[in-house]
Amino acid sequence: NAGVTQTPKFRILKIGQSMTLQCTQDMNHNYMYWYRQDPGMGLKLIYYSVGAGITDKGEVPNGYNVSRSTTEDFPLRLELAAPSQTSVYFCASTDRRSGNTIYFGEGSWLTVV
Amino acid sequence: ELKVEQNPLFLSMQEGKNYTIYCNYSTTSDRLYWYRQDPGKSLESLFVLLSNGAVKQEGRLMASLDTKARLSTLHITAAVHDLSATYFCAVEEDDMRFGAGTRLTVKP
């Protein structure tokens, strides 16, 4: 009963490095989302996907890239990390059927130094 | 662009009191969610509201949706310390946008 799984949970990056945050869901959901949450703030949408092969920008896409080659996986790529990308990142998924909620991963804490 | 506004952003309550958190949004969406977040944790789903006039209750929390007014409320009845957390509303269209959150502290 895994749900939405994110890795890694914690990571420290140096300025200019790149990395990928992994997100996998085992519920056959078509919709997937990536959010960032800065300390004491709400969630800002980075990218989302309505199905395999389809991705769209959210509110704060600059500095990130995504892909959706399968229904299960929705990795988030950070290129040339900057201190402003220090945040907690949450992946989420849903199938949009009536009454279904959106399921969140446990979060990935990223620090850029 | 879809905008979601919550108020108040900070709320300090005495145990046993009632209060309401408001969530206004800018579109005609009829899909609204309420979540709870404890410090250092992920988001926990509280309510899913999918039509005008929808009302859902769980324990001391009750959520409602008025799509014509583009307003949802989360009412807290007889607050207890365990309800201390941050509460978010979120509105769904093609994507899903969150309010800034209401940080609730319930004091003895």
Can you walk through the features of this model?
The complex is a heterodimer of chains A (113) and B (108). Chain A is mainly β. Helix content of chain A is 0%, strand content 50%. In chain A, β4 and β5 form a beta hairpin. The model of chain A has no long low-confidence stretch (mean pLDDT 94). Chain B has 108 residues and is mainly beta. Chain B has no helices and eleven strands. The chains are: A mainly beta (113), B mainly beta (108). At the A-B interface, β5 and β10 of A face β5, β9 and β10 of B.
List keywords for this structure.
heterodimer; A: mainly beta; 7-stranded mixed beta sheet; 4-stranded antiparallel beta sheet; 50% strand; B: 108 residues; mainly beta; 6-stranded mixed beta sheet; 5-stranded antiparallel beta sheet; globular
Q: Determine the strand fraction of chain A and express it as a percent band.
A: over 45%
Low-confidence stretches of chain B: none
State the oligomer. Answer: heterodimer
| Helical coverage of chain B, percent range | under 10%
Q: What is the β-strand count of chain A?
A: 11
- Number of alpha- plus pi-helical segments of chain B: 0
Principal-axes shape call of chain B: globular
Number of helices of chain A: 0
Structure class of chain A: mainly beta
Task: Give the SSE layout.
The complex is a heterodimer of chains A (113) and B (108).
Chain A: E1 4-7, E2 10-13, E3 19-25, E4 31-37, E5 43-51, E6 54-57, E7 64-66, E8 76-78, E9 87-94, E10 103-104, E11 108-112
Chain B: E1 4-7, E2 10-14, E3 19-25, E4 32-37, E5 43-49, E6 55-58, E7 61-66, E8 71-76, E9 85-92, E10 96-98, E11 102-107
Parallel strand pairs in B: 2-11
Antiparallel strand pairs in B: 1-3, 3-8, 4-5, 4-9, 6-7, 7-8, 9-10, 9-11
Give a quick summary of the entry:
The complex is a heterodimer of chains A (113) and B (108). Chain A has 113 residues and is mostly beta strands.
